[in-house]
Structure to design on (324 residues):
């Protein structure tokens, strides 16, 4: 009887009587241990630039992934590694990327410095193509010291509607914003002479991200310890990129039925269709090793007042969606 029912179901699909299941990305969206994903849209392709998740001494390269439709992904291996960045020795992680003047600028942290006496911090690489290969742009770190208590890691580059580029970064529960020079070769002071302004919201730990929707600036960050199950993402909103940012609440966190440690994300916006996506990492159930993290994607929704709706973790991911 079961075989007869299955045959009838398949005949109905072939006859057009039942809708075929639309393909989805699945979660994890890419294979392997990858974390801290930076998502972007370049040249009618979706891109994910993650951290290779392993012990610090093995985190010496970056892979990238591209897709025309969110379902089929191509791996681009070693788009940047420590051989191209002479000052980077270990702990290369949490990339950020932005396109400017037909160049692709890839920001990354390296060496996990613990004080101003150590050498490392946030660097910049550049390429003519989103898939690289990238080469060291400055030959030294862009930010190599602790300012306002912020460890120089987890950078994000934000282009404001004025055309000004800002770098937003920081670990150790402190977050700074700074103005980038137009050619990304350094930091320039604000009008009041200050180089680094602290914009740390309540419960901030690391992993900042900012986007503009309407006239509101959405500032997002990760909370909790990255090795634990309660790693999560919260957000705030303000009328300008400097805040003050009053915490609204969490929108991404563990689901005991699916995964733990859901955090360190980025946001991707298909402006033509006004579709929003959150790309993040999480730890599969049963995995306890700190670096056993996978990259996933879900659709992001807003309510009628502009607040972000809580994200529901899934194994399906998102539907196939080509860019116009």
């Amino acid at each position: 009887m079961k075989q007869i029912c299955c045959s009838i179901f398949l005949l109905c699909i072939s006859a057009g009587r039942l809708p075929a299941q639309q393909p989805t990305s699945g979660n994890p969206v890419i294979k392997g241990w990858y974390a801290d994903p930076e998502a972007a849209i370049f040249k009618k392709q979706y891109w994910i630039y993650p951290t290779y998740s392993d012990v610090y001494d093995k985190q010496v390269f970056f892979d990238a992934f591209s897709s025309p439709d969110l379902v089929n992904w191509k791996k681009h291996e070693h788009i940047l590694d420590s051989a191209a960045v002479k000052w980077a020795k270990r702990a290369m992680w949490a990339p950020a990327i932005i396109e400017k003047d037909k160049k692709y600028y890839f920001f990354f942290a390296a060496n996990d410095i613990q004080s101003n006496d150590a050498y490392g911090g946030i660097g910049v690489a550049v390429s003519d193509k989103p898939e690289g290969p990238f080469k060291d742009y400055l030959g030294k770190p862009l930010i190599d010291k602790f300012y306002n208590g912020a460890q120089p890691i987890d950078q994000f580059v934000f282009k404001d509607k004025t055309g000004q580029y800002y770098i937003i970064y920081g670990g150790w529960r402190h977050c700074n914003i700074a103005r980038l020079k137009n050619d990304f070769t350094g930091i320039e002071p604000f009008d009041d002479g200050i180089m680094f302004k602290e914009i740390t919201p309540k419960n901030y730990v690391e992993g900042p991200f900012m986007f503009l929707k309407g006239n509101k600036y959405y500032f997002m960050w990760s909370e909790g310890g990255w090795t634990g199950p309660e790693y999560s993402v919260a957000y705030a909103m303000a009328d300008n990129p400097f805040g003050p940012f009053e915490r609204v609440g969490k929108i991404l966190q563990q689901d005991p039925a699916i995964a733990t440690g859901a955090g360190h994300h980025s946001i991707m916006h298909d402006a033509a269709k006004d579709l929003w996506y959150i790309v993040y990492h999480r730890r599969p159930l049963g995995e306890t090793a700190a670096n056993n993290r996978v990259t996933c994607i879900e659709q992001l929704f807003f309510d009628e007042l502009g607040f972000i709706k809580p994200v529901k973790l899934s194994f399906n991911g998102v539907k196939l969606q080509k860019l116009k």
About this structure: The chain is about 5% helix and 40% strand. Residues 164 and 179 are 7 Å apart (CA to CA). The chain has a mean pLDDT of 94.
